[in-house]
Design a protein that fits this description.
49% helix; elongated; alpha/beta; 318 residues; eight-stranded mixed sheet
Length: 318
């Protein structure tokens, strides 16, 4: 199979028939073998009924329905697990991503041997103040932190080799950082393509300003996980040992000064009246806590079980 097209959605009943028709037209024009996997992330409208209808009309349409809204990352994870195509395309269901871009993404992956190609919505039809400027700031921070030099991490339109999506773990709200996850997994050839961004035709955006705040927090998380996720003791243990050494040396200094003054006949003060005593005590306590955190992290890492992150209520054609 040439293509798996994965489309997570939430309350997009108006756009689904038009999007399906558009994708089928592109697939037929280029003679691709394909599957379209819709993941209904807890829609409360008629989205699932429309997916069921489309699946009866077109056996290439497949669907997964979550019991409630679990988030875009979980929807992509479910779609990735089912995808069979040599190239996997992800796109949004709101018609802002154009299916006309799929052939170029497919060619870049198959013929130019890219592991992943990310779309770049260079010209956007969103609010400048509430979306464009925060997005630019977010993408700048993501580039500097991750070392993956893409202009648009948030673009949902991406193309992947099948081996990429089978070897990365998308969880939490990490869908923005799939290129970073791919890089950390060893897939180094990551490209970018300017794609068309179309004005929303139906409904309204499901994401507000909170996504940028969450995005920055997720960026910190992925930075930590990429460096210390498999070895937490290297960070917490090292910090704990450093703090403990500072506390230990400070304690030794306090005791030495106390003894020197006692044997030299100088006036001394109680150890507890020396401000350095509290610095030493605090440093040793923090050091012990950090070391314990690293130790517990190692234990959890070795004993954790993969928890089910979402519940599926229905599937069609799968």
């Amino acid at each position: 199979m040439n293509l798996s097209i994965i489309i997570p959605l939430l309350n997009e009943q108006e756009s689904l028939p038009e999007l399906h028709q558009w994708i089928v037209k592109v697939m037929t024009t280029h003679n691709y073998s394909y599957e379209i996997i819709f993941i209904d992330d807890g829609s409360t409208d008629n989205s699932w009924s429309i997916i069921e209808t489309l699946s009866k009309e077109n056996p290439n349409v497949k669907g997964i329905r979550f019991m409630r809204n679990f988030g875009k990352s979980q929807a992509l994870h479910a779609g990735f697990a089912k995808a069979q195509g040599d190239v996997v395309i992800t796109m949004d269901a709101d018609l802002q991503d154009s299916p006309e871009e799929i052939p170029d993404l497919y060619n870049m992956v198959m013929n130019q041997n890219y592991d992943l190609v990310s779309g770049w919505k260079k010209k956007r039809y969103d609010s400048v103040v509430f979306k464009n400027l925060p997005s630019k700031l977010f993408n700048w921070a993501a580039r500097k932190t991750s070392g993956v030099y893409l202009n648009d991490f948030n673009c949902g339109l991406k193309g992947y080799k099948n081996t990429v999506i089978k070897n990365i773990e998308v969880s939490g709200e990490m869908h923005r950082y799939i290129p970073v996850l791919a890089k950390n997994a060893g897939f180094s050839k990551i490209g970018e393509k300017v794609v068309k961004h179309q004005a929303r035709k139906y409904g309204e955006s499901k994401f507000g300003m909170s996504r940028f705040i969450n995005g920055f927090l997720d960026l910190i998380t992925i930075w930590f996980l990429s460096r210390y996720g498999k070895r937490p003791m290297h960070l917490f243990g090292a910090g704990g040992v450093l703090m403990f050494i500072i506390g230990f040396l400070s304690t030794g200094f306090i005791i030495s000064i106390k003894l020197i003054r006692l044997y030299s006949g100088y006036k001394t003060v109680l150890v507890t009246e020396n401000p350095l005593f509290y610095i030493a005590l605090t440093a040793m306590i923090i050091g012990s806590q950090l070391f314990l955190a690293g130790f517990l992290g190692e234990i959890i890492l070795r004993t954790k079980n993969n928890e089910e992150r979402y519940k599926i209520s229905s599937e069609v054609n799968l």
